[in-house]
Protein: Protein arginine N-methyltransferase 7
Amino acid sequence: MKTFCGRANPTTGAMEWLEEDENYDYHQEIARSRYADMLHDKDRNVKYYQGIRAAVNRVKERGEKAIVLDIGTGTGLLSMMAASAGADFCYAIEVFKPMANAAVKIVEKNGFRDKIKVINKHSTEVTVGPDGDMQCRANILVTELFDTELIGEGALPTYEHAHKYLVQEGCEAVPHRATVYVQLVESKRMWSWNKLFPVHVEAEDGEKIIVSPSEMEDCPGVPSVCDIQLNQMPSSDFTVLSDVVTMFSVDFSKPVRSASTSYRVQLEPVKSGKAQVVLSWWDIDMDPSGMINCTMAPYWVKSTSAFQWRDHWMQCVYFLPNEEPVLQGEKVYLTACRDEYSLWYKLQKARGEEENKAAVHVESPVCRCQAHLLWNRPRFGQLNDQNRTCQYMKSLMKVLRTDSVCLCISDGSLLPVLAHYLGAKQVYMLLFFFLKFFKANNLEDKIKIIEARPELLTSSHLEDKKISILVGEPFFTTSLLPWHNLYFWYARTAVTSHLTSNVTVLPQSASLHMMIVEFQDLWRIRSPCGTCEGFDVQTMDDMIKDSLNFRESKEAEPHPLWEYPCKSLSDPQEVLTFDFRKTVPEYSLSTEGSVNLLRKGKSHGAVLWMEYHLTADISVNTGLMQISNEKGNCEWNPHCKQAVYFFSSVIESETLLDLPSAVTYAINFNTKTGEIAMDFKL
Ligand code: SAH
Structure:
């Protein structure tokens, strides 16, 4: 059987439906899954085990048989914990077939075949009765169905159904309770992921300010959660305006309601400022006493000794619909609204009691300004990066002439506006943008949007003019890996016949850079686990390995490295260059070489990123900003994802002497597909 998978083609910028082997989807899912990360999450595993033991004991003490329902068993881990703790029988439910198959194997290998029944169904399809999947209702409910937002993976409807049909009244639940915490902050950095700040342009005829449409000012944005490794956010990047408060809790041992609802708390600001963002995280109590607690609290809330790195659960950033000035000591109300799968927040001033009571219901956020649909959060951050904008302005000023005819190829870019203010005679832009933005800046008739793909551009679109300056950031929303933005080069090639013979292309070139790193933690997501709390989970390791090797050549994966500390083991090295002044060549671009290891450490993988050379002396770097100390700690561009290629085996060197002196590499840019393949030897 074949399946079709949607993927952006980096040579056309368009989505294509590719026929793939039926196993493709599942290998992708397994290879990129968070199972390994969960199995490495010692804190989570230990606490689940403690909670499960305590629950089994409580049931046994009542003289009852312990019948466990484990919804979303994955590897079967929690069921095996329950069986080891003395449970009489476990029903292990798993909807994802490859995982259910793996669970069967793992359960057998660990000798629990008689105690655990793996059922490959969604929990809402499970039947109870003499001929059913389960003989009887369970009296212990064990699950791990949570995402960073707690409810985003459908925990609430699953619990609601389980209490109605699959477990006994008064059952034990592990976890017993979840609690969501919030803290109100002011943060220019985080706010810059959600609103476009005015852009100042020093033009010859005075300062121009690019503003966002008024609709954007109070647009509630998109409902998708912004989940980040908040522990990587330095305290200097935000100001705390309130204490940490409990927003709401869910008791999983009682019937759960998943229907939309809202919760409200009163906050007394500890500081005056602009309330912009609600930071949020949760904890789970594994038992009713609250003694076994697993928390996602960030560094400034919990002691560092309790710290466990994890990527499957992070912290949430919620943007208020608009910034709200608050005064120290002057009470405000924070409302959390939720539907079955997501949460959103609103802040209200404490006026009359009645007025506030009436105003609790808040609509689910829908972007009204279009900007939040066009720009994702890192993209907002990028556009608000005044340093970056400066580089583009400086380089534009170098190349623009009063008779310049400029064509811009980049998604949702401000470059055409900059080019216009900096004096281009005529500016055209290809690809999409939103008109409201031009209206707000009175530019509707100044910048012409051409609704055609580059290969379909005609002279009439350009009113028979030739392009003297072709510009791009380049940035395209369909890009996953850094080099996918080389689509600019393909587009440039497609419009060649419309360019003047001495056209200026900005950026004039790009380069691919590479460095060998040791990750502080990110290695866990791709590292085999072996045994987990005494259970043999190697079957899972093998499965992940298989999926990673499914394609002949392993692929690099995108990660925003500002969230994932690493240290450099080699110097950064330029490995390929792409000359945008020429068209894309017919042949592939490849390079081979070696890179010296300069520091001791574990070579987990290579990081790759792009640099764009706007002019001969002005560049924009999307990767390594600097190596900040002699230990090799790296600082990364905070608005871009870099490509990470994990080595299949890790080389560890205790001393510089036993270091392999170099890592050899072969990197190939296939100009036909726009993809980069790579191979490393340690
Ligand atoms: N319990 C394992 C795995 C947790 S990951 C552990 O703690 O290590 C959650 C798993 O639940 C995923 O494999 C997902 O496919 C499955 N799942 C989520 N909702 C489910 C449902 N309602 N019914 C059955 N499986 C579900």
The radius of gyration is 28 Å. The pocket of S-adenosyl-L-homocysteine is lined by residues 38, 71-75, 77-78, 93-96, 99, 122-123, 144-145, 154, 158 (CB under 6 Å). The chain has a mean pLDDT of 92.
